[in-house]
Each structure stands twice: as C-alpha cells, then as structure tokens.
C-alpha cells in the first residue's frame, strides 16, 4: 500500500493517511523490529489457542502457523522489507502474513490487541536478557573464584579513603566482588520469578468476550501463569524497570571494580597486569598499555542508569491503561541490555586473563604503616592498655617512624620502649603483614583460612 492512503490495519474511519512528520514520530519499527522473534512466538501461541478453543478453524490456524514461520525466516535472512507506514513490528508481521496466507491472517487478531501483544513481546525479550545476564554473571563469578583461590594468602594493602588501612589478602578482595555479583545474581533471579507472567489475552485493556484460554498461551510461552488483571497487564512496565535496576546495580559494581583495575594496572601501583587481549596502545606514546576495557565498563553505568531514570520518568504520570508514551519504553532498555551484557563479558575476559603481581602487592602491603592497628591491638592484649591509650601510643610510634623515614617494623626495640616502657620483643611478631592477615580470623575476616572457607562455600553454591 502507498504511504498516502489510510492505514490498512486501523484506517477504516480515516479518509487520509498521516502527515510525514506524524509517521516519523509515530513509527516504532526502526527499533521494535528487535522484537520480531518474540512477536512471532506470541502470535503462534495465540493462533494455536484460537484453534484449540474453536474460535478459528484448525485449517486457518495451520495457515497462520506456516505463514508466521515463513515471516520469521524472511526476517532472520534479512529479506523482510520493514515499512514505517505499518508503524511497528506487530503490523509489519501481520501485513506480510496477509500477503502470504490471505484472509486467514485477518483472524489472527481475534481476542487480542496490540496492547497485550507488545506487553507480551517485551516481557519475553526482557526475560531473554535476564537469562543471558544470569549466564554472564555466573561466568564472572567463576573467573573471580579462580583469582581468589590462586591468591588466597597473598597479602595486599586494604584501603579506606584510598589510604593504606590494614593488610588484606588478594583472595579476600576478589571474594568481596564475588559477594557483590552474587547478590546481583540473586536480585536477577528474584526479578525473573516476579516478571514471568503472561499479559497475552488481556486484549486492549478489559479482556475479551471470546472464550480464549490464557493458561494455554501462558504455558506455550514459558510463563508461569497469566497475569490476573487485564488493566495491569497492558499498563505496567515494572518488569523492565526491575531489569534496569538489576542491571544498574550490577553495572555500578562493575564500574567500581573497573576503577580498581585502572588504578591497579598503573605504573604507580603495578598490582595487576592486564592481558594484551584486553588492553590497547597509544598512537603516539609507544610505552603505553591502556586499560580501555576497564575504562569503558566504568563509563557504561551512565547509559544504563540513564535508561532506568528515563523509563521511570516515562511511566510515572501515566493514567491506566495503555498510552502511546509506553512505546518509549524500548530503545533505552535495548541499549542498556546490550551494554550491560557487553560489560559483563568484558569484565569476565579481563579477570580471566589478568595476573596479580604478588611481589608488588606484598611490598605495598608492608608500607604505609599498615600494621599500626595490629600494634595497637598488641598493646591492649599484651600490655593491658585501654584501646584509646594504645591508639595514642601507636600514633606516636607512627610519627616517630615517619620522622626517621622508615616503617614500623624497622624501629628498634629501644625506640619503641622510649615511647612506652611495656613494649617487648614480642611486638615484632604482629608487625609483619602475614601475621597480621593470619590473625583476622573472625567470620568474614581476611585470614586465609576464612577466605578459603568462603571460596569453598561459593564453589559448592555454583556447582
Ligand atoms: N508500537 C506500540 C508500542 O510499542 C504497540 C502498541 C500500540 N497500541 C496502541 N494502542 N496504539 O507501544
């Protein structure tokens, strides 16, 4: 059909076609063609149900099924001609079906509307992204566990305010991210369980008088059950928002880790070496090896969280039920999903390939008075000082070491006794970083024994 006549799907009451600008603002086919496979799956389930309930003849349903499969293969082969005049994926598919199978195509839309159709398609698409995200998170968790296990007892500085705080183990640091991405995984699974209900059959907003079987279509599409309220089914996009929330929080975790990798791979730190496969060079400075993947992961949170804010804003003032505003739900979710999954894959690749520099980690762990707290704790335990006094004495010793340009273990016993007479030779045992980490045996602490117990727990969980 030509673009100047009225729309072949809904044009009955229209004498003229839309203005070019109207078509430009109205058409979503430019992006919702990504829902083609889901749209055709939904239509196939609907067609089979229409036949099973006797709403259409079995021969018509069979024609629909075959026609839909043909449309799908045309789209997959890149042979399908999408038309902006047909607005969106739903009408593009149906129009092509009509060309292929004739009048039977016109019966497909019995007992449904584009409103429940798009809600179904989009749910199926988001569900696929959650499933892909689950796989990616599992791969990342496994890569982190390998790193943690290799360096369960390697010491490194732990930081607060990015200032050396107390020694920790490399394994402990890796396992902190395992906990974070593990919670992302659990959030993702919660979201999936909640969203897995079928809107199909809610029709335009009120349900339908045709004797449809919503259980049947729900089951065919892998949903746990049909949604219980037709107004809700066509109106809400909270499933997409939950997906974006899961992705945003996880992208925030990715971004923090990426930031650490950028710092750690610098010449000043040398904590890790990133592989050539996940680094780039500079076109002018021959010595450079840049952590671009980490930097890009650090930046991706912007668009992912932006999508979350954008969709929340689209939805926040809409009266029930469907409004065309909701067509604006897709592009940003597509973009966020693509970039989140890519970030997860890039992080998994980087973690899998990177090597931690054990010697640099240990050297850094031993500097910056990282065992000052161990010294204060020793004064409490062995010399009976109240913690506040021990803190003060230790501070004086740190100042003394700073003045002498050395670290705490380099002070002589007489230097120490000059600050507090009850200090004995035994103090040197706790000033070493290995003793320090080994002593932090509280549940969840950095002692290698604790870290290994957590690694074992996670390995069992992931199977
Ligand atoms: N392209 C539309 C969307 O994405 C499909 C639903 C249209 N429904 C309607 N009542 N105009 O939201």
From TrEMBL:
Family: Belongs to the lyase 1 family. Argininosuccinate lyase subfamily.
Protein name per its UniProtKB record: Argininosuccinate lyase
GO biological process: L-arginine biosynthetic process via ornithine
Pathways involved: Amino-acid biosynthesis; L-arginine biosynthesis; L-arginine from L-ornithine and carbamoyl phosphate: step 3/3
MF terms (GO), sorted A to Z: argininosuccinate lyase activity
Organism: Roseivivax halotolerans
GO cellular component: cytosol
Keyword Amino-acid biosynthesis set for record: yes
EC top class named in words: lyase
